[in-house]
Write a structure and sequence with these properties.
Radius of gyration: 20 Å
Number of domains: 1
CATH architecture: Up-down Bundle
Largest sheet: none
Structural class: mainly alpha
Number of strands: 0
Number of helices: 15
CATH topology: Growth Hormone, Chain: A
Strand content: under 5%
Helix content: over 70%
CATH class: Mainly Alpha
CATH superfamily: MFS general substrate transporter like domains
Shape: globular
Distance between the termini: 12 Å
Mean pLDDT: 82
């Protein structure tokens, strides 16, 4: 990744001179760590949780799913920056990755054992908490250990975790759609095993420990990053696109059951298992090309804006047609747009972090743009679906949000 002349100020974050260059094999480990995380994030709420909630109360599945998803996302929003700040203070990432990964097993076991909406919500809140401890530390590895010139490739490795993990999550979720308890445990084991592998193989040099701050100062510190002009606009753009994406993605199983005209003999669960690999292949292509081309031409904003606009175009396809073919085309186009966006936007974000010593905390603040919209998305989506009597309006609203996300990167000054 070339460093642009406009990005040589204090906004970009580089590993300190004393920090080691990326260990050999770090990029495959980042891919594996993120793939395991996304496998759980896709397979659990996208299939197993949706089926579990539908089995408990079929008549109110949309409202209940929105409630469980929204409340649990609050825990994601809180735990991500808090865990990031704690790992900053300790000067370590690996122990937090390991702890979050290992805790996934008992929490997934608990989730598979409950049978009321309230208990499902509590268990999934715990799941969001431990997974965001894992995610906050893992996300900070790139700004900690990867030089700016290699961040496009590193971000591509991180971005590839989404299509790979999504495919694994969809296949495992569909395979255990009739036995969600075992399915939950499988996902917990995948995350735990990957956390052990990452912690054992990705050696880290301990950073100086941070002195503890008073609670009031910590709360103020979380908001300090948003006072930085470029970081704030990166945050807004990510939040808008994620809101549009999850308003639809969170209800994918219900969209296939209640909106799409599936071919005879094809169940909604089987359709998910088909769509995810199709989406993932497109995402892999755009993630690799987007990361490489953005390094080659040193143009982050252009690729981020174009990919967000392409995601908006994708959302118009199922709005105009409820056919199975339209959903297949949507999966391809959406994969191309979202894969490139996540790869290049992750690289862009690492260049606008205000302070190197607060990298994990500020990446945790940015992850509020990932988790925060997930709080709003289920409630907004369920209201739109209930008010309009279908999913067409939901696709249109999500497309508008993606366009706004594309426009939000224009004011960023320090990155081309």
């Amino acid at each position: 990744m070339a460093l642009s002349s406009s990005g040589t100020g204090t906004t970009g974050v580089d590993p300190s001179p004393a920090a080691p260059r990326p260990t050999r094999g770090l990029l495959p480990l980042l891919l594996a760590g993120n793939a395991a995380m996304y496998a759980l994030y896709v397979g659990v709420p996208g299939i197993l949780l949706a089926l579990q909630i539908e089995g408990i109360d079929p008549a109110n599945k949309v409202a209940n799913f929105g409630l469980v998803s929204g409340v649990s996302a609050v825990f994601a929003t809180v735990f991500n920056p808090v865990a990031g700040a704690l790992s900053d203070r300790s000067g370590r990432r690996n122990p937090w990755i390991l702890a979050g990964g290992l805790l996934a097993i008992p929490v997934m076991f608990l989730l598979g054992s409950v049978d009321t909406i309230l208990l499902v919500m509590i268990a999934w809140c715990l799941g969001q908490a431990v997974m965001n401890v894992y995610q906050a530390a893992l996300t900070s590895v790139v700004p900690d250990r990867v030089p700016r010139a290699a961040r496009g490739r590193a971000s591509a490795a991180v971005g590839l975790g989404l299509p790979v993990g999504s495919t694994v999550g969809a296949l495992v979720g569909a395979a255990y759609s009739e036995d969600h308890r075992t399915g939950y445990l499988v996902f917990g084991v995948i995350v735990a095993a990957t956390a052990v592998l990452f912690s054992a193989c990705a050696r880290e040099q301990r950073m100086p420990a941070r002195a503890p701050l008073p609670v009031g100062a910590q709360i103020a510190a979380f908001g300090s990053a948003l006072r930085d002009h470029d970081f704030r606009w990166a945050f807004i753009g990510r939040a808008l696109l994620v809101l549009g994406y999850f308003a639809v993605a969170g209800f994918q199983l219900y969209v296939l059951k209640d909106h799409t005209r599936l071919p005879a003999g094809l169940s909604a669960e089987e359709a998910v298992a088909i769509l995810m690999p199709v989406n993932s292949v497109a995402m892999v292509v755009s993630t690799v090309l987007g990361g490489w081309l953005s390094d080659r031409y040193d143009r982050r904003k252009l690729f981020v804006a174009a990919s967000a606009a392409l995601a908006a175009v994708a959302l118009l396809i199922p709005a105009l047609s409820a056919s199975w073919t339209a959903m297949l085309v949507f999966s391809v186009v959406n994969g191309l747009g979202f894969g490139c966006y996540m790869a290049v936007d992750t690289a862009l974000v690492t260049m606008v972090l205000p302070r190197a010593e607060d990298a994990a905390r500020d990446m945790g603040v940015l992850n509020i743009a990932n988790a925060g919209p997930q709080i709003v998305a289920p409630f907004v989506a369920s209201l739109i679906v209930s008010a309009s009597g279908g999913y067409t309006a939901l696709f249109l609203v999500a497309a508008v949000l993606s366009v706004l996300g594309a426009l939000a990167v224009r004011p960023i000054r320090s990155v081309r």
